[in-house]
Specification:
There is one protein chain. The chain is mainly α. The protein contains 7 helices and no strands. 26% of the residues are buried. The N terminus is likely disordered.
């Protein structure tokens, strides 16, 4: 029995079937995530169309510079993940582990930057938190900030999950407990998840920070 055959798990009969099943499951999951954030984008778009002046004023109060830096950080992390996946496909476990660690580190930098931004918004009275004085007296602007807080915090949760996955995979690769290139499909699916989280932020940034 070949090494490739031993890498096939039940109930699959060959590596191609296992690969297709893994990708199909991942695509279904990613589709559900797109629908989740898509609903938030639709609500934000509807509010923007109905109350453009109020939304523009609320958007201008956000720290677009920090959001722009975070966008660059996530795009760079996606590059690192892509390089890590390609290295895994070529069987270079140590190199793949290094790329994944780099991507996870950038993800942590993003979260630190986002936490700092939340703190600034909190001190400025921008966040719609119960019991805290808000600078917004307009209900539409308050709704916009609610959507912003929900969407960005939900994104941060997804990013945190991605960071944990990348760190776990990097350890497995560094310790040699993951067989490559046969098990590179695991990195491929996690990479797709990471890229989706990054793409979601690419849409969040202009919707909330750059309303004009």
């Amino acid at each position: 029995m070949s090494d490739t055959r031993r890498s096939v798990a039940e109930p699959f009969t060959d590596p191609l079937q296992q690969h297709r099943a893994a990708m199909m499951g991942m695509y279904v999951f990613l589709g559900s995530e797109i629908m989740l954030f898509g609903g938030l984008f639709c609500v934000a778009a509807a509010v923007r169309l109905a109350h453009a002046p109020e939304i523009v004023r609320a958007s201008h109060a956000l720290h677009s510079g920090i959001g722009g830096i975070n966008t660059a950080i996530l795009l760079t992390s996606s590059l690192f993940v892509a390089l890590g996946v390609e290295s895994a496909k070529e069987g270079r476990a140590k190199i793949a582990s290094g790329w994944l660690v780099g991507a996870a580190a950038l993800g942590l930098v993003f979260l630190v930057m986002k936490a700092y931004e939340y703190w600034m918004e909190f001190t400025e009275g921008l966040l719609p938190i119960e019991g805290v004085h808000s600078r917004y007296v307009d209900d539409v602007q308050h709704l916009f900030m609610n959507l912003y807080l929900i969407a960005t915090s939900l994104h941060a949760v997804h990013l945190s999950i991605g960071i944990v996955l990348l760190i776990a995979l990097s350890f497995r690769l560094a310790l040699g407990s993951m067989k490559l290139p046969e098990r590179a499909i695991v990195l491929v699916t996690v990479g797709l998840y990471w890229h989706l989280v990054d793409v979601i932020w690419v849409f969040l940034y202009p919707v909330f920070y750059l309303a004009r």
